[in-house]
């Protein structure tokens, strides 16, 4: 099928989940050419639409990376970071992705499956409801690496948590200690994260209640990160001596992010569920001349 380079009818939407914001590009048949430079141009907050990332909405059967999941999930979330890099998974993004599918009438309310590079995720869409969405995020993997995160003159030990994408979770005394986060925190040993890492800084707010800031790989500091909140909840539970696979009881952490609140539950089988908002803000059409320059 011919790839779309010039189009007057390239549609986009803008959405967010706890202020982690995304440009949404519906492209069921995977005909839109989306090189990294064009994604970065769309996500640019001054010269483009602006977003922490981009949700390319494609039928799984039409995307080479998702074809094997087509039997399980009709739709593939081809997620890109704001710098154009291609990554495994976005927790806030998958809720916004599902909200788009719901609003566009492309799925029925109830449980839907969404294919991602991090595997198929189950998303629960309550009937006729714009409220919170719950996603089954899968299990966390916690390698026993001695990771250190450094910002400015300060260093902290961090927990390595993989939620399909990589995270380093550091418990700090004060979220301000993370500094302005204009640049990515340093980490060591470098070999633990060969493709970079999302870094979460965490403080306690109360019992099973924490707050975090995050520096996202490929995006900079964002106001929320869903996979990051899951990584934080699991790291906090282990630090607190709680492991549902041992106690046999689920545990829920409230995770406050700069853009709102996410509820994270870990079940005895290790499955993690995340609940939070998903909002469609606007819809429009990308200017054909601007798009030509973005593709050059
Ligand atoms: N904001 C997302 C995570 C997006 C991907 C991340 N920046 C990475 O490179 O792994 C979320 O809500 O999980």
Folded structure, characterized:
Belongs to the diaminopimelate epimerase family. One of its GO terms (biological process) is lysine biosynthetic process via diaminopimelate. One of its GO terms (molecular function) is diaminopimelate epimerase activity. By secondary structure, this protein is α+β, with helices and mostly antiparallel strands. It has 2 domains: 11-132 and 279-295, Diaminopimelate Epimerase, Chain A, domain 1 (Roll); 147-275, Roll (Diaminopimelate Epimerase, Chain A, domain 1), CATH 3.10.310.10. The chain is 16% helix and 40% strand. It is built from 5 helices and 18 strands. The protein has helices at residues 36-43, 91-103, 226-239, 244-247, 288-295, and strands spanning 11-17, 20-26, 53-59, 75-81, 110-116, 119-125, 133-139, 147-151, 154-162, 166-171, 186-188, 198-206, 209-216, 220-222, 251-257, 260-266, 271-276, 279-285. It has an 18-stranded mixed β-sheet that branches. A hairpin with a 3-residue loop joins β9 (154-162) and β10 (166-171). The longest helix is centred in the last third of the chain and has 14 residues, at 226-239. The radius of gyration is 19 Å and the shape is globular. The mean pLDDT is 95.
């Amino acid at each position: 099928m011919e790839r779309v380079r010039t189009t007057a009818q390239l549609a986009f939407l803008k959405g967010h989940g706890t202020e982690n914001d995304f440009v949404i590009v519906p492209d069921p048949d995977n005909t839109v050419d989306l090189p990294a430079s064009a994604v970065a141009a769309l996500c640019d907050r001054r010269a483009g639409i602006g977003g922490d990332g981009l949700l390319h909405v494609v039928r799984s059967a039409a995307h080479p990376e998702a074809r094997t999941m087509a039997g399980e999930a009709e739709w593939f979330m081809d997620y890109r970071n704001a710098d154009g890099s291609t990554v495994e998974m976005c927790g806030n993004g998958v809720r916004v992705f599902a909200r788009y599918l719901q609003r566009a009438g492309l799925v029925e309310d109830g449980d839907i499956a969404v294919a991602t590079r991090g595997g198929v995720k189950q998303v629960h869409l309550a009937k006729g409801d714009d409220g919170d969405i719950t996603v089954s995020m899968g299990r966390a993997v916690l390698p026993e690496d001695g990771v250190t995160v450094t910002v400015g003159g300060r260093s902290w030990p961090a927990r390595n948590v993989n939620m399909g994408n990589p995270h380093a979770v550091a418990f700090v005394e004060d979220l301000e200690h993370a500094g302005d986060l204009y640049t990515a925190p340093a980490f060591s040993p470098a070999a633990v994260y060969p493709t970079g890492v999302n870094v979460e800084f965490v403080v306690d707010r109360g019992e099973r209640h924490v707050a975090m800031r995050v520096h996202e790989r490929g995006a900079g500091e964002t106001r929320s990160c869903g996979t990051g909140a899951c990584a934080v909840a699991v790291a906090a539970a282990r630090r607190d001596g709680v492991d549902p696979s041992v106690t046999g009881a689920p545990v829920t952490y409230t995770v406050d992010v700069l853009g709102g609140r996410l509820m994270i539950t870990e079940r005895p089988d290790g499955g993690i569920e995340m609940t939070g908002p998903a909002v469609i803000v606007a819809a429009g059409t990308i200017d054909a001349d601007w798009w030509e320059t973005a593709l050059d």
